[in-house]
Amino acid sequence: MTRIETPVTRLLGTDLPIVQAGMSWASSCSALPLAVSNAGGLGVVAAGPMRLPDLDRTLAEVAAGTDKPWAVNLPLYRAGADEVIDLLLRHRPPVLIASQGGPRRYLDRFHDVGARCLHVVAGVEHARKAADAGVDALVVVGAEAGGHPPPAMVATSVLVRAVARAVSLPVIASGGIADGAGLAAMLALGAGAAQFGTRFLASVEATVHDAYKRAVLEAGVDATRTVGRGLGVIRALDNDFTARMLELEAAGAEEALRRKIFQASTLKDAALHGDVSGGKVEAGQSAGLVDDVLPAAEIVAKIVREYRAAREALPPIDDNSGSRLS
What we know:
Layout: H1 7-12, E1 18-20, H2 31-38, E2 43-46, H3 52-65, E3 70-75, H4 81-91, E4 95-99, H5 107-112, E5 116-121, H6 124-133, E6 137-141, H7 156-166, E7 171-174, H8 180-188, E8 193-196, H9 198-201, H10 210-218, E9 224-227, E10 234-237, H11 240-250, H12 255-264, H13 267-271, H14 296-313
Parallel strand pairs: 1-8, 2-3, 3-4, 4-5, 5-6, 6-7, 7-8
Antiparallel strand pairs: 9-10
């Protein structure tokens, strides 16, 4: 199998520096994580919206379906997070990716069962605190990301470079990355891998409604909006829901009204029921770079081909040209 070795692949034991993002509903299943892990990347089960019996079954399916590394993503703010942690510890996932909370809540217990612990961060200060707490690596999320972008809205290229300069841990870049050229760019900035979310939304195995996948394919790079100021900002594809939220925000509507509209629309409505007009169609700006729905293993292979092409296209340095490099 093709290998691209980096600090992240050495840490996690994967063949490739390709991480499939943990996406609620889309990878709250075994099929997508298994396909990515078996193709050489890191497949990630999204535990966020899952009921305990469903999560229990899914983790057993993933463990039985691969001898490759795989991961679970856990937003620590979810209801019943402590019960989820207890369940995960029984399954001993090779990798835990945690977000929306402090690392000390889980770190020692997962290290005790041999798991690598990655923490999602949205800024340099966050990154330093997580590194000091003892996490094994960082997932650095930039403004282009779908779902929950960083509050300061710093671009991935800038934030990844800043974090790579600030800490000595392996870094996984996330946000606005859809192909092998993006992977090459993130590795050049100091990351050891890239996380792909929206690209894997448009996969055969992603368990979201076909209307959701079509909306991603039809989107341009300028088709997402950030809404929910003061409520937990999300990036989603432009639709009736985002238009209403932007209208209320521009008018300075009271928080109670904005919260009512914001909470009445859900990701589940879009992902499972196909309501791409009124639901939260969470996706990153990279939707404008996604043109097809493919099996996840083909997506991984395509990213590798694109990465090779991007590297080969870089101009060499000619030290014998007669000019001096300063």
